[in-house]
Every structure is written in structure tokens, then in C-alpha cells.
Design brief:
The chain has four helices and 15 strands. With 272 residues, the protein is α+β, with helices and mostly antiparallel strands. The strands form four sheets. Strands 3, 4, 5, 6 and 7 form a five-stranded antiparallel beta sheet that branches. The longest helix is centred in the first third of the chain and has 15 residues.
């Protein structure tokens, strides 16, 4: 009786585990059997990260679905980043060597992000919202994307139902981008993010908090103004204008701008 109870408990726990934890990563290729086939998913703050979803036939290369948080001081609008990374597992180091990565895609910190093999190729979802898919790959009525491969050269490829090459990762060379780490540009953070202005505004405001007050940078609402006021012209009594003298005009306000000792936020120089 105790054995039966133990087996029942084990089955119940296995049912509660996410599918990407219980499943074993396929070797060499994945064939698409549904319109949107989930390869991996990562909830916020999930410990099983990264998620292995495909290995090359020899096992030398491994494809992972990754989720990284924005590091303190890195900007990045305090978003998470979900992306695919192919590693050379034979290279020195605990994690191997990065040979290819997809784009750093900003996702919500509260949604599960998922990697899906669909009729558009490889798609990354932020909750139920697609944020990106592989370029120039999409099924049509007569031909559809069928197979995802990871070959022993470290290249990831997508083939159509006839076996013809539809996409390969080596056409988009990227590696070791360090998504979410210091140096990641805000432009890259917003890329692929379908956000309205009201949604982006609070993200910018939250990122603004991390910028030190003495840094001269454009901010939201409290900006360093670049608008030039209209200068007052000097006139004679007969109405004809005259050139302004070289000496400073009495009572003229000093120009706005950084002090000579102020450090620039971007180039770390002083006084501009």
C-alpha cells in the first residue's frame, strides 16, 4: 500500500513540473508537428534557466533558451531578455563557448517567455504576445517549415517540408552579446518591443532613477533644454537695428549647461 502511495505521489509531482524540465532535449533535429510547437518556456525568476532544447548529433553543440535580468546599472529599462544561444560544450569553461545568439529581446518581468517553432520559424513570445521571429522564414499554403536542425558545425537551420534550406543562423552572426549586462543600449532593449507610448513612459521614468543627478543627459519631463530663446535686438531711436557689442550685456543671465567639472554620462569627459 505504501509503495502504491509513493508511486502516486511521484506521478503527481511529475505532473506539476513544467514540460521543459521533464523532457529530454532531442538530438540533431526537431520536426514540427503542430502549427505552434513550444520548444521551451521560462517563467519569471525560474531556477531552471537556461533550458536545453536541442543538441547536435555528436553532442558538441547545444542550443539553449535563455532568460536574463537587467543587471544593476545596466539600463535596459529594467526588462528581462529572452533569446536563443548555441554553445560549444567542448570549449574550456563551465558553460562552454558562445558561437551564436539570437537578438536580445526585451520582455516583461512578470510574463513567461516561450520559444516556439511555428509557421514563421523560431518565435519568441512574451506571454501571449510574439516579439520576434526568424527573418525571411514563413510557411505558405503549398510549402511549410518542417524541420529545425542543429548540425555538428554549430549552425542552426530551418528546412521546409521538401528538405530545402529556409533559414540558417550563420547568416545572422552574433555571439556573446551579454544581454542585460552593462553596456546594453536602450535602442536594443526596445527592439522588437511592441509598446505604446503610455506603456514606454513609465519604463523610461523607472530607468531615469538609476541616472545620477549630476549627469547631463536627456530625461523625461525634467530635461536639459536645448531650445534657444529669441535674442533681443538693440535698436536706435529711429528704429534701425545695430549690431550687438562684443562686451557682455549688463544683467544678461548665464547660459544653461553643465559645469566644467561635471562628468558626461556617456563619454565620461568633463564640461559638456
Amino acid at each position: 500500500m505504501e509503495l502504491v502511495s509513493c508511486i502516486a505521489m511521484c506521478l503527481w509531482l511529475a505532473f506539476l513540473l513544467p514540460s521543459h524540465v521533464a523532457a529530454t532535449a532531442p538530438t540533431g533535429m526537431v520536426e514540427r508537428e503542430t502549427k505552434q510547437q513550444i520548444l521551451a518556456s521560462i517563467p519569471p525568476h525560474w531556477e531552471e534557466n537556461p533550458v536545453l532544447f536541442l543538441t547536435s548529433p555528436s553532442g558538441k553543440y547545444a542550443a539553449y533558451f535563455m532568460r536574463s535580468q537587467t543587471a544593476p546599472g545596466a539600463g535596459g529599462l529594467r526588462a528581462d531578455f529572452c533569446y536563443v544561444e548555441v554553445l560549444d560544450t567542448t570549449a574550456p569553461g563551465a558553460e562552454g563557448w558562445s558561437v551564436w545568439e539570437s537578438e536580445c529581446l526585451a520582455v516583461s518581468t512578470v510574463n513567461t517567455c516561450a520559444l516556439v517553432f511555428s509557421w514563421k520559424g523560431l518565435e519568441v513570445f512574451d506571454g501571449s504576445n510574439p516579439v520576434s521571429h526568424t527573418h525571411d522564414t514563413e510557411s505558405d499554403d503549398n510549402n511549410f517549415l518542417k524541420t529545425l536542425q542543429l548540425v555538428d558545425e554549430g549552425d542552426m537551420r530551418i528546412l521546409d517540408k521538401g528538405g530545402e534550406l529556409a533559414w540558417k543562423a550563420s547568416d545572422e552572426p552574433r555571439a556573446a552579446q551579454h544581454c542585460g549586462m552593462p553596456g546594453l543600449e536602450i535602442e536594443r532593449s526596445l527592439k522588437g518591443m511592441e509598446k505604446t507610448i503610455p506603456e514606454v513612459y513609465p519604463m523610461l521614468k523607472s530607468a531615469e532613477v538609476e541616472i545620477k543627478k549630476e549627469h547631463q543627459v536627456l530625461m523625461v519631463n525634467k530635461t536639459t533644454s536645448f531650445k534657444k530663446g529669441k535674442g533681443k535686438k538693440n535698436f536706435k531711436k529711429d528704429g534701425k537695428g545695430v549690431a550687438a557689442p562684443d562686451k557682455p550685456v549688463a544683467g544678461k543671465k548665464p547660459k544653461h549647461g553643465p559645469k566644467p567639472e561635471t562628468e558626461c554620462f556617456y563619454c565620461k569627459g568633463n564640461g559638456h
